[in-house]
Amino acid sequence: MGSLNMEKKWVFPLVISSLVCVFLLATSFNMGLVSSLHTINSIFSIFPSRVMTNQTNPSFVEERVKQTLPPPARPSIPRFAYLISGSRGDLEKLWRTLQTLYHPWNYYVVHLDLESPAEERLELSSRVEKNPLFAKVGNVYMITKANMVTYRGPTMVSNTLHACAILLKRNKDWDWFINLSASDYPLVTQDDLLHTFRDLKRDMNFIEHTSRLGWKEGERAMPLIVDPGLYQTTKSDIFWVTPRRTLPTAFKLFTGSAWMILSRSFVEYCIWGWDNLPRTLLMYYSNFVSSPEGYFQTVICNAPEFVSTVVNHDMHYISWDFPPKQHPHTLSLNDTSKMITSGAAFARKFKGDDPVLDEIDKTLLGRKNGSFTPGGWCSGSLPCSKVGNPTKLKPGPGAKRLRRLIGRLLLAAKISQNQCN
């Protein structure tokens, strides 16, 4: 009996101890499980979009690029972003064109290619840096690391894309990109241009184009060329290699003018190339004769989302031979009335300081003594020496001519649906 009582005395503490141990083990197990689950969740949280996308809403990266936040409200007055480029001996022409085009509301990239002497490039850089208006507003940039540009090869396209990338990186609020050379000159004031374009949809692209290649099919599309400007520091002409190639079947070729007004949305597409078409065509056109006259046309007309935005005009007055040669006629005073009648915003090609430029300054732009083209923004004791209100516009007769031209172009596009044909 004594031993039995002794065993009963130990039963109760033993049961209690067992229960406590089981409780502690269960608690430890649960804590470990919670910790493990937390760790697993932490690991998967590194890849939330990929895991969730695969489980709930499969999509392609191209679709995700398009699903961006709506852009902020734009000002009623658009902004233009210019590239003005030149080569050896073009310093003074480029500087005059820049002064004539300048408006504090816009942005400007200037470039003298690698063929230009270092002295010319340094002088241009010094003028941009020391000009008091440019320094205060800060909207004129120079490509200091010059590119080699061979005008019949792809290096001109590369230089244009370089300028586009600079403008996209530096500024987020421009609406249209315009590429010009030092041999171009405006036929309307910037106030005329801004006033006319303020009523247009900001996604419109003014780019001359046609799919009827004609003689260019055999002379430009089918030969294979190499542009030494891609790998040499001295300029030399392109050279032909064999064999010739057939026309592509993966995309349709278009040709037109190397000068254009492109919307910011299309420029972004060319730089980002989220469906790879711009890169594929850039590689194709690296062996194409006069690729600046076909690259942007072929990109925009093979991208369905941009076809409806194309207006078949380059906003230039250019006088060509028939069939066209590599370069257009050089314009003179004899062409003044034709330039005005055209209603175009720009004209080319001009010699430096030709009397016709003085006539354009006097008759069309109201520009005097090598100053800036006057506009509503001008202030100061000297004409346009200070910036007043940059959004104040004073359009003149040039705006009416340009508006009539664009009206005819839009009507023709609406009636005939001639975009990318």
Summarize the SSE layout with pairings.
Layout (H helix, E strand, L loop, with lengths): L1 H43 L3 H9 L4 H6 L13 E7 L4 H11 L5 E6 L5 H13 L1 H6 L2 E3 L12 H16 L5 E6 L3 E2 L3 H8 L7 E2 L9 H6 L2 E3 L12 E3 L19 E3 H9 L4 H9 L9 H7 L2 H4 L2 E2 L4 E2 L18 H7 L3 E2 L7 H11 L12 E2 L6 E2 L9 H20 L5
Parallel strand pairs: 1-2, 1-4, 2-3, 6-10, 11-12
Antiparallel strand pairs: 4-9, 5-12, 7-8, 13-14
Helix pairs in contact: 7-10, 8-16
Shape estimate: globular
Range of strand content: 5-15%
Low-confidence stretches: 1-8, 28-62
Spatial sequence of strands, sheet with the most strands:
3-2-1-4-9
Helix run count = 16
| H and E order | HHHEHEHHEHEEHEHEEEHHHHEEHEHEEH
Q: Tell me the structural class.
A: alpha/beta
Q: Helical amount among residues, as a percent range?
A: 40-55%
Biggest sheet details: 5 strands, mixed
Q: Please tell me the overall pLDDT.
A: 86
| Distance from first to last alpha carbon | 113 Å
Radius of gyration: 32 Å
How many runs of DSSP E, i.e. beta strands? 14
Q: What would you say this structure looks like, in words?
A:
Helix content is 44%, strand content 11%. It has helices at residues 2-44, 48-56, 61-66, 91-101, 118-130, 132-137, 155-170, 190-197, 216-221, 264-272, 277-285, 295-301, 304-307, 336-342, 355-365, 397-416, and strands spanning 80-86, 107-112, 140-142, 176-181, 185-186, 205-206, 224-226, 239-241, 261-263, 310-311, 316-317, 346-347, 378-379, 386-387. The strands form five sheets. Strands 3-2-1-4-9 form a five-stranded mixed beta sheet, sandwiched between helices. α14 (336-342) links the parallel β11 and β12.
